Amino acid sequence: MVVDVRQDQVRIHLDCDEKQDVDKAHWFNYSTVYSAGGHTGWYVMPEKGDPVSLYFPGSREEDGIAGRAVRRAGRGDGHNKFSNPQMKIWRTPHFIKLDDKEGIHIVSSKQVSISAGGNLSLSAGKTMSLSAGSELRMDCNGSHIQLSGSVDMKGSEVKSN
After folding, report:
1. What is the DSSP letter of 25?
2. Residue 134, in any domain of the structure
3. Res 99 pLDDT > 60
4. Does a structural domain hold residue 144?
5. CB 135 within 8 A of CB 147
6. CA 47, CA 107: separation in Å to the nearest integer?
7. What angle do CA 34, 83, 80 make, to 5 degrees?
8. Are 21 and 50 in a shared domain?
9. Residue 130 maps to a domain
10. Cα–Cα distance measured from residue 9 to residue 2, given in angstroms and rounded to the nearest whole number
């Protein structure tokens, strides 16, 4: 079971050990699904408390490689989020859910940012809804629209019908 995480390494409490002092536990490299020598790859680390596998490629204990976090929870009665193979979930303490029927859901208690070096396009086949608790703003090239109980529009030329 993972007791500590840093960069691409984990400390593990092995089932064969009754107790494990976290500060004395060995740092094992963690093998992700895909990682390359350059700047590409998939960086997904387990969290504290996650069970992982530990592989020893030779006789040296310090060469051990941790990987493959294994889900140990029961399969349940069909209400389990993992009971539907058509549903894709990227599970984090909050979540990102990719569902062919329901679409994409991103939930966070903190800020969510989307940025592009080039164009960013948002479109909807029917309705697009934007809502904010206190203020909605759009700024572009000296023009400005602010909605916060009243409407404030600024620009070199403002047209209305």
Report:
1. S
2. no
3. yes
4. no
5. yes
6. 19
7. 105
8. yes
9. no
10. 10
* 24-63: pLDDT as tens digits: 999 999 998 777 766 677 788 888 999 999 999 999 999 9
Interacting residues of 107 by C-beta distance below 8 A, sequence separation 6+? 94, 95, 96
Tokens 């294994």 — which residue?
A: 70
Domain around 51? 2-67
Question: How many angstroms separate the Cα of 75 from the Cα of each of 6, 67, 114?
Answer: 30, 22, 35
Residue whose C-alpha is closest to residue 48's, from 74, 20, 17? 20
What pLDDT does residue 14 have? 93
Query: In 3-state terms, what secondary structure has residue 5?
Result: strand
Q: Which structure tokens are listed for 155? A: 């620009």
Q: Which of 17, 19, 22, 9 is nearest to 67 (CA)?
A: 9
For residue 106, give the amino acid letter. Answer: I
| Pick from 103, 106, 77: nearest CA to 91 | 106
Give this prediction's pTM: 0.59
Do 52 and 2 form a contact (C-beta atoms < 8 A)? Answer: yes
Radius of gyration of the chain (CA): 24
Residues shown for the chain: 161
Q: Note whether 45 and 10 are within 8 A (CB).
A: yes
